[in-house]
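Example 3.2
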Amino acid sequence: MSLHTESYWIAALRLVCFGLLTGHASEMPRVMAILDYANEEKDGLLERLVAPFIPGRGTPPDECTRHLPYRKLFKVFAATEDKRPALMTKYLDDWYEASRREPYFDRHEARAFYGYWSWESAAVTWLLNIDDASYRNKDFYPRDLVDYARTHAAAPQATDPSTAGDPIRLRCEAGQPCPRAGFWFTPAQAGSRRFFAAGEVMPSVGGDYGVTIWQWDQHQ
């Protein structure tokens, strides 16, 4: 699988994204070993996606082997949590036209057309635990796959590859199953810190905050 050819999207990127989103992050060392076999140069996006699951691969490069649209996601990784939803919205708005050199571009009249989907935006949304409320209905965003990952895929246990060792901040909306056993709190209610078991439905506390958002307490 040469990362400099159409195999990047046809095989490599989709293999990594689907692996992460369907709960097979533990297989990433094997996946990357396959990609390393035929590629001396590392890809900036793939390395950022697998960084929490494969220690020792070094700092992800600031270049993509297939430049557009994928390199635009580097801004999402580098941004603070509050800036990421707007940057992802912009990424999805530009995604199709920026993909004009990719094999899926302008394929809607082809016999084997199976849709336009930005699998990488889904993987990054899940990996960085981005609030996707502002872009859930965007064209090309596979929200159902992100919802599946947040329910079934194991949350990253290592660090956010965009930061210097800062833990990934987990969040969970009321009504959704708890993604990780431990202590959680919500800014919507003082003194809300409590223990939830994995899979336990997160409750709503009401108030003026709208949907209750529970956040993982880093001090377990």
